[in-house]
Amino acid sequence: MTMPRRFVALGDSFTEGVGDVDRRLPNNCRGWADRVAEEFARHDDRTLYANLAVRGRRLQRIVDEQLEPALALNPTLISFYAGGNDLLMARLNLGRLMRDYENAVMRLKASGATIVLFTGYNVPLSSLLEPLKVRTAIYNRHIRRIAAKYQTLLVDYWCFEKFQDPRMWASDRLHMSTPGHRYMARKVLEVLGAPHSLSEPVMAPWRSKSLTENIADDVAWLRRDVGPWFSRRVRGVSSGDHLGARWPELMPVVLPERLGTGTAKTVKAQLSSRFS
Q1: What does DSSP say about strands 247-252 and 48-51: parallel, antiparallel, or unpaired?
Q2: What is the rounded CA–CA span in Å between residue 209 and residue 42?
Q3: I need a labelling partner for 230 at 20 to 30 A (CA). Which of 62, 171, 224, 269 fits?
Q4: Mean pLDDT computed over 22-41
Q5: 165-198: per-residue pLDDT in tens?
Q6: How far is CA 141 from the centre of its chain?
Q7: Residue 251: CB partners within 8 Å, gap ≥ 6?
């Protein structure tokens, strides 16, 4: 009998699941990593899963807070996405960032686990942020080099044309929507060569907007998302400062259809008592 998979996910909001809202779950989100774990569990109910990712984390905090706890779980599969929040910084030493990233990958690879890395995507924030494309392109070149050097698996997010569709993005324009997370889960499973039952994401019908509607959307976005984000940057705080990892310990995967209803607090209590 093969050894059960022990899947540990590391990173920031991308891996935490922000944008894929599910108020029954910790931090009120689900995300692609949960969906991948669920597909593993549908084919092998011995699957164990932990998700240490926390929104807002930059690379150094991910390394400091998540690497050792992840390795202590003796995983067989590790997903690692980091550096996206660093790319948004006004001042960035990209060479140092990528050296630190490579050192982290080297430590993860030494565990013997299968490692999955990700390139970044040109998030459709605003035309004012077009210069970020250059940073992302350089970042991605390094990611591909590191993946080849350490023989990791690579999910080349940059190449997914599906994400040109605005419906794949949440209203904050920074995080994937539920269809986006569902599609990402499919692509990860394909890279892993794992069987799955995920179909193409179902999205709301496309409706073109008038110039007036687009301007109103931009104004609402600036007020609702950009203003608070900029305020946090000025104050040196993060949206994840008050949060912990959603699934900090390896646990059997509970499929969403078995969760029923309830708040994240009550569901988490049920899961903790069930698997303690």
Answers
A1: antiparallel
A2: 40
A3: 62
A4: 95
A5: 888 988 887 899 999 999 999 999 999 999 998 8
A6: 20
A7: 48, 49, 50, 271, 275
